[in-house]
Amino acid sequence: MTSKRPKALLATASVAVALAAADTYVVVLALPDMMKGVGLGIDALQKATPIISGFLLGYIAVLPLIGRLADLVDRQRILLWCLALFTAGSAITGVAVDLPVLVAGRVLQGIGGGGLVPATLAIVASLWPVGTRGTAFGVVGAVQEVGSVLGPLFGAAILHAWDWRMIFWINGIGGIVLAVLIRATGGPSTASEHASPAPKWWHALTALAGLATVALLGLALIAPEALTTSIAFGDPFVPYEGHTARLMTPIGLWGLSALAVLIALSARYWWPILRRADLFGALLIATVLGCLVLTFSSANPETEVVGPMGFWLVPLALVAAGIYWWWHRRAAQPLIARAAVVGRVLPALVVSLLVGTVIVAIVVDVPILARITVTDSQTEAAVILVRFLIAVPIGALLGGWLLRRVGPGLVAGGGMALAAIGLFMMSRWTGNVLDSLHATIVLVLVGLGVGLAIAPVNDAALADAGEDVHGVTSSLIVVARMVGMVVGLALLTAIGLHQYYAEISALDAPTAADYKAAGIRQVDTVFLGAAISATVAALVSWFLGRERLVVDADSEVRALSRV
User: What is the pLDDT of residues 187-214, one digit of tens each?
Assistant: First the structure.
């Protein structure tokens, strides 16, 4: 791709990444209101889990396909399409009054938001030569973590002034503004050589179908009172007998029909590209990742490691993985290109997975420890966690800067070793330690250590992967981290709770102090597991390379020609 202002493009794309990262956590405080908005009581929390797992499913399962598309077409186009999906998902979520519609909106948000990360990383690799990418990767990692910090705060501020729907309308407006800025800073997109040319009347017909889809489905979902109560215009909004959903109305079905026509007409543009991207392989990988997400994210950590569907989802994932392995060896152009996982890419994936496990252990269990020992307020517990969260983006920027001077293995390994030392100290915490300066220092150092590993992982992996597979390689790094978060949380929490219940069951008449002590030891067990994960990550980081990456003269010439 080309850009006359690569730094401006990086800044704009990074803001988009931050917006998507914030949306990952924005429902933490808004979930009860969202449940009420689609007719669920607070006692129906189990039914509301798809609101969260749907976003994760969209975020993770389709990432390899988006990464592959970023290697086949202009990466700026992928950014714009991901923003379009994110914006559409935000709008659908904002108007939803039915749970299936709300979940569909969250899935679209996840697909669009997740795709922004690998596309942005691939753009960095395109516009900066090997040996000079560290700072840019640090910026992307930092803004992603900043978005995670701001997500709950953003949600709290909106809920204080408006209702939960405004969160998603602001997301949608932000997506549109960012798309305009990316188009302005990125310059003209390169036309795809794989798309089938179409006459002007086909373009016009497709645009008309798109407008009809937006208008009809928008009216069906919003259901303006002026129309629904009108004698002349209200009939199309009346649900069919036996249904209450707004889409199960005449205007809703008209909108769905227009959507089907739009898909059929637009296939001329996207089908040749998708077919080249290995749809069969994408379906298999999406099945594997989707099964992992649903298996572990739906589990009740107090009683099980895997969710109730895991007994058939895990075998399905294994079968899909086996078929993909066979297909990968057979296909001429598999989804995960053979040049994508070479050299330092494999250790980078391992480190990324373990970093995800460390992050989720801290993000989940520091507030739990705070609630057990120092405060009953969820807000105050979250404020304690901010000490760690603020340090992570600072560490990411510092890690990118250090890559100018030392090798990625030393930066990532040193960072994860620092995190491991801090986590081993945290695994011995007792009493009201979170009120102390010692706890603040430890949390900050662990955050800095984790942040230090973010840029080196991307830098080392994309230095070894082929230039034409940077998109799919970037997506695999993001997937590894997210899988580490989902699976790591389930495993570490299950181990900690097993110890908790074992201690309580061994007592004849446990007191409140006994429950508190067992709860602290349960959290300490999770921190110990995270410390072991960080130690392994520090050791594996050694294989990322000890020498500073040298500027590749050929890639520098190519990058300068793009700029």
Answer: 665 555 555 577 888 889 999 999 999 9
